[in-house]
């Protein structure tokens, strides 16, 4: 959370204008948003890699449960960006297709995972997430999308 916040707090308002992070000169005009995007991708891929690298099929569900619990803690700390990084890693196809592993994950963790997944659903342009953010009390790190 501290690493994420240190990137987030550097974002200048001008970086958010006209999707500067998607245009020519983005490295100059939106370096901190690009850093947030890069961090998101790194953490998401790292989560998936940590799960896939576990060769012991009895231990792999525990790793998934651990990441679900970390995502919940991030949610409780209002670090929605980190929460979504983890959820994104858990939803990567390389992890999602581990049906036997997911079947061994505790039902409470599965329920919590589904709840977090519903919160970050991109249906209706992230409507549920946007509504949730509108009721948060600072401090926090939002998901930039």
Short recap of the structure:
The protein has 145 residues and is an all-alpha fold. Helix content is 63%, strand content 0%.
How would you sum up this structure, described in words?
- It is a single chain.
- The chain is 63% helix and 0% strand.
- The model has no long low-confidence stretch (mean pLDDT 92).
- The protein has 145 residues and is mainly α.
- It starts with a helix and ends in an 11-residue tail after the last helix.
- The chain has 9 helices and no strands.
- The radius of gyration is 16 Å and the shape is globular.
Helix/strand layout:
Elements (H helix, E strand, L loop, with lengths): L1 H7 L17 H4 L1 H22 L7 H17 L3 H11 L2 H4 L2 H5 L3 H13 L7 H8 L11
Helix content: 55-70%
Form type: globular
Strand tally, please?
A: 0
Low-confidence stretches: none
Distance between the termini: 17 Å
Strand content: under 5%
Calculate Rg over CA atoms: 16 Å
Tag the structure with descriptive keywords.
single chain, 145 residues, mainly alpha, 9 helices, globular
């Amino acid at each position: 959370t501290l690493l994420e916040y240190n990137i987030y707090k550097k974002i200048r308002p001008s970086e958010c204008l006209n999707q500067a992070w998607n245009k020519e000169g983005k490295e100059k005009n939106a370096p901190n948003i690009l850093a947030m995007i890069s961090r998101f991708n790194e953490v998401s891929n790292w989560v998936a890699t940590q799960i896939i690298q576990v060769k012991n099929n009895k231990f792999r569900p525990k790793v998934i449960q651990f990441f679900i619990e970390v995502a919940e803690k991030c949610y409780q700390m209002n670090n929605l960006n980190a929460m979504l990084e983890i959820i994104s890693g858990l939803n990567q196809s390389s992890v999602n297709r581990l049906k036997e592993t997911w079947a061994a994950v505790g039902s409470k963790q599965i329920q919590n995972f589904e709840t977090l997944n519903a919160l970050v659903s991109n249906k209706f342009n992230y409507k549920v997430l946007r509504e949730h953010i509108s009721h948060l009390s600072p401090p926090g790190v939002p998901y930039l999308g």
